[in-house]
Amino acid sequence: MAVNVAEIYKNSKEQTASKEEIITMLYEGAIKFCNIAITELELNHMENVNTNLKKAQRIIEELILTLDKRYPVSKEFQQVYDYILELLVQGNIKKDKELIERACNDIRGMRDTWIEVVKQAKAGQK
What we know:
Blueprint: H1 5-16, H2 19-42, H3 46-66, H4 73-94, H5 97-125
Helix pairs in contact: 2-3, 2-5, 3-4, 4-5
């Protein structure tokens, strides 16, 4: 049985990551699965498109679960996540590259906003 060092490192990183880092990893994962789905769509591998878009959907659903409802901004995040989910679902049903790309771009925007918020929060703690 071969030892997969990359897998051990990944699992270790996930187990020691902060909440902020985990959310960033979730965004990165959703982006990765959207990109894979786009590539698979171009190759006409429809089953792989479906598989990867479902993975991206599950990640967005997980991000919805992480929302702290005590803050008013969570409602706005919920609306954006719902919109992204709809794009992913429709992109999957219709096998529509434009819808998938739009979802991926929105996820990137959410990730970039999240990273900036975390930076500002950390800077404010100093």
